Amino acid sequence: MTILADDPTAAALLDAVPCYPVPSMGRSPGLDALRSSRAGHGVAVGNDGAMLILRRPWLALDAPLSPPFAAHLPYGSIGDPKAELRCGRVPGEHLAAVLDHFRAALPNEAAAFILWNEATAEFAVHFPQIDEATPTRLVYRPPACEPGWHVVCDMHSHGRGPAYFSATDDADDAHATKISLVVGRLDDPTGPVMAARLCAGGMFLPVPRSPFSGDPPCSLTSPSATFFPPPSTIAGSGSSSWDAVETAPRC
């Protein structure tokens, strides 16, 4: 057995976030266990790049971290990208309830969370405690989830303004695993607009279509952040449970 680190703290970190070379033939028990796990994350390294493998009870994500390596490596392929909602898409009535709440808060900004229970497969809307709300500033507290409940969506409004992710949003989302959404133009007669991204592994990734089922009454706009990998990398994957990316059409 090869010892990867002689420092106990470093060894614990490597054990928590392992890195597996992909065998050129046969299977990797370590990778198979990670991909089928309830929760965890690690990195697969193949002859065609590196892949983040992240699992949460509600999410299964395989996201490329790099383009193919220039050097020859005697490894197999990392496989296709994947972004799968294990919890399924959020019922559209929850989005309608959130939009009603956001409109009632005008001209101020407001916030909401979509939670999911892995035991009952139930979704719920949580309206957080607001410490400060103005038309241009919002300070709110994330929920302290009971066992079995998970945050799937973190949503806030920009009132009558456009939907985009601010520098404050980037800092708040940097170390979270969730779908982050901003809703704007709530008083527009043609309907509000929504920017969305998947926050995972310190990356901001495009979401394939809306995470809500039905016909959400909003337009999904192209988020303002710069993404890696490009939207087509994950969203174009046939293994995704969300359809193709929609960055302009009405939801």
UniProtKB/TrEMBL annotation:
SUPFAM superfamilies: JAB1/MPN domain. The keyword Metal-binding applies. This is PRTRC system protein A. The lineage of its organism: Bacteria, Pseudomonadati, Pseudomonadota, Alphaproteobacteria, Sphingomonadales. It comes from the Bacteria. Residues 93-188 form the JAB domain. Gene3D superfamilies: Cytidine Deaminase, domain 2. Keywords: Hydrolase, Metal-binding, Metalloprotease, Protease, Zinc. Residues 7-86 form the DUF2016 domain. It comes from Sphingobium olei. The keyword Membrane does not apply.
